[in-house]
Specification:
The chain is an alpha+beta fold. The chain is built from 3 helices and 3 strands, in the order αββαβα.
């Protein structure tokens, strides 16, 4: 017999404890080489300027990690990436401090 019951093993409800942000970035390729990575938009209606800036910087770092992924590489052109960042409400609030 298990010492854990299904009633006590409920998963933490991340929707109550965290916030999710969508950020659009673009990677511009020329001859399959990265020419530039830029931030297009941070979707957040209630963010302060500092929070928006920090989310954008983190999204650019994540886009840089994705630039060599074969599914993202284009011979010539622009690849738009939707990046989702999930933060706890406590960590999000701390960005302003």
């Amino acid at each position: 017999m298990s010492i854990f019951s299904f009633n006590t093993l409920k998963a933490q409800d991340y929707k109550k404890d965290s916030l999710q942000f969508k950020i659009i970035t673009q990677i511009k390729y020329k001859s399959s080489q990265v020419e530039s990575i830029s931030l297009k938009k941070v979707f957040c209606d209630y963010c302060t300027e500092k929070q928006t800036e920090q989310l954008g910087l983190q999204a650019l770092k994540l886009a840089a990690l994705e630039q060599e992924n074969p599914k993202n590489i284009k011979n010539n052109g622009i690849k738009l990436l939707s990046i989702y960042i999930r933060l706890s409400k406590k960590d999000f609030k701390a960005i302003n401090d």
